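Take a look at the protein record below and tell me what you see:
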Amino acid sequence: MIDEKTLIDQIEKALDATDNRKYRAANEVFRNVYKTIHENPFVLWNHPKVFLLGRAFMIMYHGDLFEEEEHNIELAHLSLFYLHRSEELYKTGIITNQDDYFQILRIQSVLLKTCEDCFIESVSTFYQPHSREISADEKKGSLLLANRVMEYVLYSVLVEITDTFNGFKGDAFLDETCKNIEIYNPTISDKLLKEGTNVRKLLYAFCKAKIAKNDFSFM
């Protein structure tokens, strides 16, 4: 079984290759990382660099590592899962670097902005009855609710960044994304912001429960 150091070395090698546009070389390593996580998804669970997995899985998604939709949806969920775990490690003092925490939240923002559709099906289940079979209308309604709430999920991350760092540290992507949300939603209430935060936590718990059962299907 691969150890923590070897896995981190592989991830950093693949990320470096991506930064240098050596995509074929990066994908070869990414496939090994993907295989390792399927075999042992909690290998970096308490490691301060677990956030690198969050970045890696998002890059795998955008780099078309797989063609199948189900695999791409899985990659997006794995990215969010490890990024949220990284937040936990920061808040418990295992991750102490402020720059790392900024990147953890920034990558989450990019993920939720660019991969939003990947989470709609999962989030819709939070708005469905679980004690009986749902009707077609209830299914449609839950999907509409999920589609709407995802913007507040993203906004909750942006608010966390501004609360922690007193702004976006000059990051143009974060600034523009936040302004666009506020332009089209000029009256975002505390209730809606709380809903976004809660859904983000539910998504994390949802992913954790499935992955603990070695279930990587999110469709």
About this structure: The chain has nine helices and no strands.
